[in-house]
Amino acid sequence: MSDRIRVLLVDDDPDFIEANSIVLEAAGFQVLTAASGAAGLEMVEREKPDLVVLDVMMENTDEGFAVARRIRQRLHSAVPIIMLTSVGKVTGYDYKPEEHPDFFPVEAFLEKPVPPAMLISRIREVLEKGEK
Question: What is the pLDDT of residues 110-130, one digit of tens each?
């Protein structure tokens, strides 16, 4: 059993999954992956990751939001969630999870593309906040 922090990447873009898996593993994280919202929910329930990086636009334009709400409500999980997506560029809306915690039950919202160092930094920051 590994004692490394387990990060679940949920995204339907295989290139995103591959590139970010490499970056996160190089930073010392154990990476789990899911290519859909449904698979992500199963992974959260079965694998109990330490943090989820979740895309918004997968099969539906708002699938990630629904997945985040299901993680909180159906699975009753407090696993930290970082939304990492380009939905803001598509919609023109500036998403602020702290202003709408019921609709955005996530700890952070980052626009793609995110530099690898920023993603790693944000993951560590969110995990540190959760430990306090």
Answer: 888 889 999 999 999 999 987
Token readout for 84 is 């990492």
Please state, in angstroms and rounded to a whole number, the distance separating the CA atoms of residues 66 and 40.
12
Q: Of 58, 53, 60, nearest to 32 (Cα)?
A: 53
**Model pTM score:** 0.87
Tokens matching residue 31: 């990476």
- Cβ 122 vs Cβ 110: under 8 Å: yes
- Can you tell me whether residue 76 is helix, strand or coil? coil
Long-range contacts: 89-94, Cβ < 8 Å, 24+? 90/57, 90/61
Are 95 and 106 in contact by the 8 Å Cβ rule? The answer is no
Q: Which tens digit of pLDDT belongs to each residue from 22-64?
A: 999 999 999 999 999 999 999 999 999 999 999 987 777 778 8
Write the DSSP string, 36-86. SHHHHHHHHHHH--SEEEE-S-SSSTTHHHHHHHHHHHTS-----EEEEES
Residue 95: phi and psi, rounded to 5, are: -80, 130
Distance CA 66, CA 14 (A): 21
